[in-house]
Amino acid sequence: MSKTTSGDFTKTTGWLDWYTGPAKPQFQLPAGAVDAHCHVFGPGAEFPYAPERKYTPCDASKAQLFALRDHLGFARNVVVQATCHGADNRAMVDACLASGGKARGVATVRRTITDQELQQLHAAGVRGVRFNFVKRLVDFTPKDELMEIAGRIAKLGWHVVIYFEAVDLPQLWDFFTSLPTTVVVDHMGRPDVTKGVDSEEFALFLKFMREHPNVWSKVSCPERLSATGPQALDGEQAAYRDVVPFARRVVEEFPDRVLWGTDWPHPNLKDHMPDDGLLVDFIPHIAPTPELQRKLLVDNPMRLYWPEEAS
Ligand SMILES: O=C(O)/C=C(\CC(=O)C(=O)O)C(=O)O
């Protein structure tokens, strides 16, 4: 059944709604596992979508996110501000506050934010800001504004999450490598997997991580990166095989600097919507040992988002 968008909003034409009734994963997540990349959308009637947004999604509430967390076997979430909410962080903050300490957040902020507002975000559970360079999602923000924000949030012990396409890494390199914080790359910098894991493009990404110990990567979103599938649908236990070598390479070379997340509710997918239970079953293909799984799903996200509890 198609899902709705409440308030004065109409979903973008062709919008794919998140999957209803996901499978129970066959892979059993380690105790304390963190879904370190997911979003909430609205609901629009309560938390209006931003005027500058590039898409209007179906609603995806905090209650629906928490139900998915429990169903899949995660203990915690990191809720990342989605561009459809611009720099209005209220929906993400509301989810963090309602989670009883089980969610932390990544915000989008402008240079006009006051120190007091940053403190309020911190108190709500925000531990990072996201800088988005994907042109179909956001308008350009000057780098001096971003660097100024990075300097301010560094003082709070936060990190910067960056989202970009692989072809843009060379031109963004100098900016990224001068950021003063831990830097977390979304979705491995979106490699073109048809070029192969030994391509120059992916080698540059690995070099970026190798030469900069403050750079981490989310090895998430195979459903976005895959060219040949198979899709995580209909019980498929070996989905997105073309993405596995990329994520596995990153997990094995940088086991202490990787994170994983569902990316629920999967904004802007074009051809299919994955079954989130089967997406979880992707994890042992990229992190084949219990030790790698524990680092990816528990130790690393706890160190970054709940350092006061990390062992
Ligand atoms: O959810 C993601 O990570 C990826 C997105 C959406 C996004 O980043 C956003 O709207 O903020 C994408 O590739 O369209």
Summarize, please.
This is Amidohydrolase family protein. The protein has 311 residues and is of the alpha/beta class.
Short descriptors:
311 residues; alpha/beta; 8-stranded parallel sheet; 33% helix
Shape descriptor: globular
Structural class: alpha/beta
The tally of helices reads 11
Please compute the radius of gyration using only Cα atoms: 18 Å
Record field, number of beta strands: 8
First-to-last CA distance: 44 Å
Low-confidence stretches: none
Question: Remind me, CATH topology?
Answer: TIM Barrel
CATH superfamily: Metal-dependent hydrolases
Average per-residue pLDDT, rounded, comes to 97
The helix/strand order is EHEHEHEHEHEHEHHEHHH
Q: Major sheet: size, sense and barrel closure?
A: 8 strands, parallel
List the helices and strands and how they pair.
Layout: E1 34-38, H1 62-72, E2 76-80, H2 90-98, E3 103-107, H3 115-124, E4 126-132, H4 143-154, E5 159-163, H5 169-177, E6 183-185, H6 200-211, E7 215-218, H7 222-225, H8 244-253, E8 258-259, H9 276-280, H10 283-286, H11 290-305
Parallel strand pairs: 1-2, 2-3, 3-4, 4-5, 5-6, 6-7, 7-8
Bound molecules: (1E)-4-oxobut-1-ene-1,2,4-tricarboxylic acid (NQM).
The site of (1E)-4-oxobut-1-ene-1,2,4-tricarboxylic acid (NQM) has 11 residues, from loops.
